[in-house]
Specification:
Blueprint: H1 2-10, E1 20-24, H2 30-36, E2 42-46, H3 53-63, E3 68-71, E4 76-78, H4 83-92, E5 96-105, E6 112-113, E7 119-123, E8 129-133, H5 136-144, E9 150-151, E10 160-163, H6 164-169, H7 183-193, E11 197-209, H8 222-237, H9 242-248, H10 261-269, H11 275-281, E12 297-301, E13 304-307, E14 318-321, E15 332-333, E16 339-341, E17 344-347, E18 355-356, E19 358-361, E20 370-372, E21 378-380, E22 385-388, H12 392-395, E23 398-401, E24 412-415
Parallel strand pairs: 1-2, 5-11
Antiparallel strand pairs: 3-10, 4-11, 5-6, 7-8, 9-11, 12-13, 12-24, 13-14, 15-16, 16-17, 17-19, 18-23, 20-21, 22-23
Helix pairs in contact: 7-8
Length: 418
Amino acid sequence: MKNSCYSVLNRSPEHLIKEIILVDDFSDHPEDGEELSKIHKVRVIRNEKREGLMRSRVRGADAATASVLTFLDSHCECNADWLEPLLERVAEDPSRVVCPVIDVISMDTFQYIGASADLRGGFDWSLVFKWEYLSQAERQSRQKDPTQAIRTPMIAGGLFVIDKAYFEQLGKYDTQMDVWGGENLEISFRVWQCGGSLEIIPCSRVGHVFRKRHPYSFPGGSGNVFARNTRRAAEVWMDDYKHFYYNAVPLARNIPYGNIADRLDLKRRLHCKPFSWYLKNVYPELVIPTSEGGPGGSLKQGHSCLDSMGHLLDGNVGLYPCHDTGGNQEWSLTKDGLIKHHELCLTLPMYAKGTTLLMQVCDGSENQKWRYLEGGLIRHSRIPVCMDSKFHAQRGITAEKCDSSVESQRWHLYNHGH
């Protein structure tokens, strides 16, 4: 922590650093804070009880007197000339939220390892952050001017610069989130959907120690805490697209997420755009799992659902009473006609009626293409056969001659949560 403070002070123009506020989240060693407060420009605030990342950061931001806030983790080291490029972008447009390139500091040796400047932040439908490479076209464009800012759909979380007035106008952090996790997702959605932008500034670099485990406890378990926080973000900002998250993480449906009325009110007051706008304008690369029927979930016949029956690669599928919690009954019909269960697709192995359908690795081949027809029939794209459940007890789901009068061929796409 002392090294982090000195890296900020020694590698920044003195007039640009008004103060460094450290928030001690009720640690076991308050004497460390007393020692750190002796450093020039450092002010230590100690919580009276454990508050977690979000409430601690809001407390630090509220105490700050400067007009621009820079959030850093305690396990960081700022590189030379790291601050000026960040402040310049915010000075030009206070609705920009900007991040440095995050280099790696080895936890074991403290070796400093430069990260690629061709990365941006993204996520998948399980709402887990991931780094992803810019497209080939973007990388080629950047060769002409490698200093240009990189628009990013999501920030990693710990390190960013934001105008203080804008931070307050935007609703700070969701202070009902606990401990750690999901806050970067929530603030990223909020910035983009409510009129701001997120950028990575390649001329700014800050090293970060990536720890192998959390040095603190999660009351109720880290998985439950992360799911609770993530559910709050999804329920407020993702509209009906939240069902893709629940499809990917079915157990999250059972985690209470608390009251979100104040966050929904904030969304209305700020006239924030819908999540469909975010997908179209900010993150069009995120593949939407389903088309027909909106966000997917189950394929139903009465009270029964299409079920993998626990089978995996090259296994058949059957019918089982619907439980609406995903798992073996989690299916999506994609825009290009694939019926997916995680990474497997429902496949017609032979072009013949009576053939048992199998789950095989999705490769987009012709025998994996289906069409959902009016009336509920699911017809193969190449030959006139439809998914039929009449032999499910003996052979699983088969492909039979299409007949709209047969109940065993009528399927209903049911969206979880609707």
